[in-house]
Amino acid sequence: MKITLETVEQVAKLARLGLNESEKRLMAEQLSAILDYADQLQKLDTTNVEPMAHPLKTFTPYREDIVKPCDDLEAILKNAPKRDKDFFEVPKIGD
Hints:
This protein is mainly alpha-helical. It is 39% helix and 4% strand. The chain has a domain at 5-42: Glu-tRNAGln amidotransferase C subunit, N-terminal domain (Histone, subunit A), CATH 1.10.20.60. A two-stranded antiparallel sheet has the order 1-2. Helix 1 (5-14) packs across helix 2. It is flat. The mean pLDDT is 90.
């Protein structure tokens, strides 16, 4: 698929990018190449390919949330930039 300079200019305007003429030509060439490759991928037969989010088998191990008493509160709070008694003090956000 051929990307025109006008399309690049429109996208650059929407993205608030200031591109000079050589950058516009380069972007048009590169985007055209990307879309041409995507067109090639569309021609592949993927009927027996399972949808996936990642090409490698991954898993997220979960652990049960267990509430435990804090044994050393001073050690936990000693590096806090600010504290209020037994709590971290954080700046207020918004009004």
